[in-house]
């Protein structure tokens, strides 16, 4: 760590080390959700909108918006079968969520928290991880287990981006 970098205390709850499969998946998913929130903590709207490097529109706020779309699609549209559009794109273009140039913390986090609450409700109501639904987007059947693992993967990938974005903003590093 350089003298310009600071390390923040870790407020996250880790996944269970001895839990069953469902509890472990829930734990990892919540851990990654908390990681994204932690990477955004204490920043202004302008800092949250700061892009990584031209021409990329990638920003912390864009990641929050994208993850709201991911939660919405995988849990509400695919697992629950809701016929709802994306939050930020009338055409179904996931990339539109990344452009947070006109967004605010309140707008993005409100949508994300709402989608996370729906996801938790849908997952908790499912009788088993073996629940299988049809994903018409890719014309394949998927289980709740696969969906949870896929969303964990999405968070893990984008939390790596969030690490770099946060460090570039104010030097904060850490898990």
* Rg over alpha carbons: 17 Å
CATH homologous superfamily label: dinb family like domain
| CATH architect. name | Up-down Bundle
| Terminal CA distance | 13 Å
Series of H and E elements: EHHHHEEHE
Q: Which regions are unreliable across 5 or more consecutive residues at pLDDT < 50? A: none
Please report the total strand number as a whole number: 4
Shape: globular
Regarding CATH, which class? Mainly Alpha
The largest β sheet comes out as: 2 strands, parallel
Mean pLDDT across all amino acids: 92
Keywords:
single chain, 175 residues, mainly alpha, Four Helix Bundle (Hemerythrin (Met), subunit A), two-stranded parallel ribbon, 5 helices, 53% helix, globular
Textual characterization of the structure:
With 175 residues, the protein is mainly α. It has a single domain, classed as dinb family like domain (Four Helix Bundle (Hemerythrin (Met), subunit A)). Helices cover 53% and strands 7% of the residues. The strands form two sheets. The chain has a two-stranded parallel ribbon with strand order 1-4. A hairpin with a 4-residue loop joins β2 and β3. α1 packs parallel to α5 and α3 packs parallel to α4. The model has no long low-confidence stretch (mean pLDDT 92).
């Amino acid at each position: 760590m350089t003298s310009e970098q600071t390390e923040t205390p870790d407020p996250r709850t880790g996944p269970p080390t001895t839990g069953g499969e469902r509890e472990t998946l829930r734990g990892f998913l919540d851990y990654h959700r908390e990681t994204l929130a932690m990477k955004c903590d204490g920043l202004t709207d302008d800092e949250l909108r700061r892009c990584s490097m031209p021409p990329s529109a990638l920003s912390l706020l864009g990641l929050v918006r994208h993850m709201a779309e991911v939660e919405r699609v995988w849990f509400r549209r695919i697992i629950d079968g809701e016929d709802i559009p994306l939050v930020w794109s009338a055409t179904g273009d996931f990339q539109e969520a990344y452009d947070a140039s006109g967004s605010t913390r309140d707008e993005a986090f409100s949508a994300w928290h709402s989608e996370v609450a729906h996801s938790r409700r849908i997952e908790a109501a499912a009788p088993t991880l073996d629940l299988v639904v049809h994903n018409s987007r890719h014309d394949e059947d998927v289980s709740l287990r696969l969906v949870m693992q896929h969303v964990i993967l999405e968070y893990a990938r984008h939390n790596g981006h969030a690490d770099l974005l946060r460090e570039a903003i104010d030097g904060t590093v850490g898990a």
